[in-house]
């Protein structure tokens, strides 16, 4: 695949993704900069009231507020810790200025010698602007808008209590001001609140709503994505022959560690992603389906064993000879090879080599037509074929995997369309961030990945085998054929003598069978009664042949001679 289609795909991806990834940030910015906000509210609280915070002693924790006789401090439990125990007396963190609380509660602590009843005020608000007329000029002034004021009556028990102050559900970040009635020093006006996404409500009122939600949010994506992934995997396996070859276990471990660690370290963000983008769960299932296909099915793949014998000087097979070798051991390597329309290639495990093969690059055997020592193995064998390597070869297999490299296309007329598309994508990304349509990091990540996809170029690998001499197969077959007859011979002279004796023995057996066959034909034709002397046998002498007669019933041969005398 050329770079031009990839560049255009990256451009389209940025066009679609840039506004989406920044929708939440844009909405939050719009809330904070909205003009023409109302300066008054039913609560009667002004911006000055809501921004006023209590005094803090030097070198004290940020959320401690100290009066003449008593002091209070606010603690919270971070939302990114799913194993936290909110409200426990021996944990919690001081609330720092400007922090956004993710849980729907903060906690007040103090020291008291008796039970103490207090009223805690909590105000939720947003900062806006309004236009005012001052003489002949108009100007904008900051104001508090959308103010919501609630109170909580709480009891501080004797000792060092931890009292929960509930916070309302907020799907978008709001400013929070909290104070204790009658204690002007106990004020906190420097934190925000945005509920963790898993606490958001879902508009499901019946089983029908639930089924419809499942179909829209999950089932439709899984079905469509499953067919799409199945088609893509088939196309990829037709070209690559075999998948990444990691097996199921590494994928399961990687996915488990990735999701587990990601959920623990980025619990708040992951929860927001899952709740606000349900399709991620569906894509996760589709990804598992793709892994199963890629790791299960293959196309035109066989297992080949490469064998290289190790030679060592041995006793000469001739009595006068000196140069002789014996196979003392061997080295063996098993590789997978795939046969495609481009030739025979060696394939090894790896995601990037697999992707390179999908794009038509592979480590083809350069001298496959010269491998005369290839031996096909019968069905049911552990391997499909065997290649015998030259004993003097340095390696069993000379191999360099197919890979990827970063390659800039030339800046010329032929590649002008690619450069124009990429420049357009970069300008779009910068503009979306500059005008608040998208946040910086998501757009930067997408743009960087698009550039890498555009610049990445697959490169062919290399594979070669130095085959053993062509006569090795016939020599080995001949050796096996005669091994049973000459297994005791140590020298060629002994081998020759044993082979000569074996040939004489086999020829003599053949002659005997021919003689028996001829004698049988003669007897049946001219001596049906069995009166002619038998043919000469190998163990008969001249005298025994003269006296030899076939056995006749009741001595019929002697009786016939007596009759002739009479």
Automatic annotation (TrEMBL):
At the top level, the lineage of the source is Archaea
Region span, Disordered: 32-63, 519-566
The residues that cross the membrane are 210-233, 245-267, 279-298, 419-441
The UniProt regions of compositional bias labelled Polar residues, in chain numbering, are: 32-62
Per UniProt, which keywords does this protein have? Answer: Membrane, Transmembrane, Transmembrane helix
Name recorded for this polypeptide = Uncharacterized protein
